């Protein structure tokens, strides 16, 4: 994955932020919409694309475009920086392949210790009962 090429492939669109804020919100476009076309990206290899498609399935559109929004600050430039940071973090975390789980058996000593503790606790609980008078 090449971050410089990735950042060049990003598309940005500035729109007006939602919510309260008075006249400033009504006249400035500080909300940033970041879009990234995963299908036509040159910075990501084919294997990485497949991995990202499976992991980011809920965040991708039907055309495999990732869209992120940022409207935290009143500055368009700061929102753009935040959106890029979020995007890169999202890509990096989802490119990590999970470790393959290998089945293991508990050792004979561990099995023996477990059975012994179970016996001890059952004896302890049995001693709490009232004795039977026959």
Task: Write up what this structure looks like.
This protein has 134 residues and is α+β, with helices and mostly antiparallel strands. It has a domain of 92 residues: Double Stranded RNA Binding Domain. The chain is built from five helices and three strands. It has a three-stranded antiparallel sheet, with helices on one face. The longest helix has 21 residues. The protein starts with a helix and ends in a 6-residue tail after the last helix. The relative contact order is 0.14. The mean pLDDT is 89.
Top keywords for this entry?
Double Stranded RNA Binding Domain; 3-stranded antiparallel sheet; 3 strands; 134 residues; alpha+beta
End-to-end distance, in Å? Answer: 79 Å
Q: Give the CATH architecture of the domain at 3-94.
A: 2-Layer Sandwich
Can you count the beta strands? 3
Report the total helices. Answer: 5
Topology:
Blueprint (H helix, E strand, L loop, with lengths): L2 H6 L2 E5 L7 H5 L3 E7 L8 H10 L9 E6 L5 H19 L13 H21 L6
Antiparallel strand pairs: 1-2, 2-3
In brief:
The chain is α+β, with helices and mostly antiparallel strands and 134 residues long.
């Amino acid at each position: 994955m090449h971050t410089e090429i990735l950042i060049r492939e990003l598309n940005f669109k500035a729109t007006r932020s939602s919510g309260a804020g008075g006249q400033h919100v009504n006249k400035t476009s500080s909300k940033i919409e970041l879009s990234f076309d995963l299908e036509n990206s040159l910075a990501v290899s084919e294997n990485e694309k497949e991995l990202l498609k499976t992991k980011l399935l809920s965040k991708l559109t039907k055309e495999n475009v990732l869209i992120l929004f940022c409207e935290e600050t009143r500055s368009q430039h700061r929102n753009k920086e935040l959106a890029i940071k979020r995007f890169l973090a999202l890509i990096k975390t989802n490119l990590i392949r999970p470790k393959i789980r290998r089945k293991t058996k508990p050792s004979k000593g561990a099995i023996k210790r477990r059975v012994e503790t179970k016996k001890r606790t059952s004896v302890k609980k049995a001693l709490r009962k009232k004795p039977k008078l026959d």
